[in-house]
Design a protein that fits this description.
about 60 residues; mainly alpha; about 0% strand; rod-shaped
């Protein structure tokens, strides 16, 4: 998911450089959404991993 966020971010940079402001804004929003989704999924798995570790070593 972070790979897709980086790809959309790079597309946004190139589109902005070439003057396609609408495309740049759209791909920047998609990149931001994918990045935040990846962070949320990482946090969920981190919490689940800590909880599983506590249950295993109790």
């Amino acid at each position: 998911m972070l790979r897709w966020a980086l790809i959309f971010f790079l597309i946004s940079i190139v589109a902005g450089f070439l003057g396609f402001s609408g495309v740049a804004a759209g791909t920047a929003e998609i990149a931001k959404l994918l990045f935040y989704a990846a962070v949320v999924i990482f946090a969920i798995f981190l919490i689940l991993g800590v909880m599983a570790g506590e249950a295993l070593f109790r």
